[in-house]
Amino acid sequence: MSNIGEMRYSSARPYRLTGMTLIEGAVALADTTIQRITYASFDRPLTISGNGYTATLTYADDYSRTTMTVRTPMLKDPFFKRTYIGNYEADSYGTQRKNIERYYIGGDAYSAPAVYVRVNSGQWKLHYIYRDYQGSVTDITDAFGTVVHRMRYSPWGKLLHTDGTPYTRSEELSTDYDRLLLLGRGYTGHEYLPWFGLVNMNARLYDPAIGRFLSPDPYVQMPDFSQNFNRYSYCLNNPLKFTDPSGEFFFSFLIPGLGTFIDAACWGAVIGGATYTASVAMSSGGFSNWNWGQFAKSMGFGAASGILTAGIGQAFGAVGSNGIIGEAYRALSHGAANGMITRIQGDNFGTGFVSGGLSSLAGSAFMIYAPAQIAANIIGNYAFSGLVGGVSAAVTGGDFWQGVTIGLMTAGLNHLQQGINSRLSLAYDGAKLSVVDKDGSVIYSTSATSGKGEHMNNPASQHIENLGPIPEGEYSYKNNKWQTMTRIQQIKRLILGGDWGTHNVPLEVVRNNSARSGFYLHGGLFKGSAGCIDVGANIGKIYSLTRLQKITYVYVNY
Questions:
Q1: Is the C-alpha dihedral spanning 494, 500, 503, 509 positive or negative?
Q2: Are residues 340 and 193 in the same domain?
Q3: In what order do the strands lie in the sheet with 205-207?
Q4: Mind listing the pLDDT tens digit for each residue in 312-362?
Q5: Residues 132, 200 within the same domain
Q6: pLDDT by residue (tens digit) across 202-212?
Q7: Domain shared by 447 and 377, yes or no
Q8: Are 47 and 37 within 8 A, CB to CB?
Q9: pTM, entire model
């Protein structure tokens, strides 16, 4: 690599990289201190140390990051901390006493077309995000279209100045993080960690200077292609054609949308091969019963099932987004698809139909009705769907392990891939309450009021206790907090404490600039309610649209 140095390989094993001879003054060279990384049991990085910095990462049950804290021995408090809550991220710079918040609109950090940014609890400002065909962030503009940040990259992801010259490591370390990358993300939408010169691609860490991952890929996706056996290479050594969103499987952009199904086929093959291996291991005689032809067959049908399962997931979207009837149709689709596959394999159509349908219903019920902490557990979801699939297959005369495969496929490539329906949010502007989907489109809107008397819907009065409308900010409510009131209860409530209509739910403050509390979203016959949002007779519609979501966010902006 002409601008970095020379790679050294083993003479006995010419494919094995043993070291590098670095060029003095190489643009990627900051210092030669040893970089140490520790990993969790699920192969995600826990700590990264080097250049006098140590980053510590924490994760949720689904292995998504929750915090990243960067420390240096010279400072008692964290040098930098990032918190992740869904589409919301907050950065705290300890040395500069600076806080930057971001909320991605219409998608996540990899796909959102816009983002709200706030510095030091000031005003939220809208920015638009521009990406190239690889998903790399190239330009960010303000609400008026003025470019406020511009980024460029080498084909392998090295950060470049706008004139095309690469940033040196000393420049990266001396430049404020938010000036280097306004969103903290750049190449293919992933987080760049300038303290270590690495890109966090979720499952693995990637070094753009040498175009290699720091840990091996656990999956061989194309066994007929020799490049795929280099488990440290990035995207088959073809970064202009492929990207790697998860750090494990790459996506193809030759045909729009194809990447999703390539990924599904890979996962399906992995699940099919793994369950065959488990079935042999637990059989009488163990691995003496191993059959390579049967193993290949399991992987092949697993790949086909993965594609069909992902297609059904794409068609039906998030779990619960189409109501109970939608989940029933989802289950029927899974039943038909898996019945067809088991029939092609020479087994009974009914076995695959029952196993696919019941495992789909089980996965939907688990995500919708289980307590939030349990439903978010990825292992629990896999286990529940896999067990239901296996038992239902065995009861109908089929193969238990084939049913387990169907259940795992349904859980991983449909339910967990699409997620629970939490993509609807509410927006209140002082005149109307709107239900907004993940793309920012309004799917329902109704008039709504907040505040009493002359202060009703008056943003200038939002800080007046017991009179002013609900303050600007972000709120949320949990599905299990909804209260449905009978006619008798409504009349009693009207006489004793106010008009709340057929449904009401408490609003929790996510962020606002007020010390007030006790907010509700409710209906009622008489408009006007201090500190609450009153939707009147249409509260039932809001309830029905969002009741299958675990959490719904409400944004108040006058």
A1: negative
A2: no
A3: 191-193, 198-200, 205-207, 212-213
A4: 766 666 666 566 777 788 888 878 887 887 787 777 788 878 887 888 777
A5: yes
A6: 888 998 888 88
A7: no
A8: yes
A9: 0.51
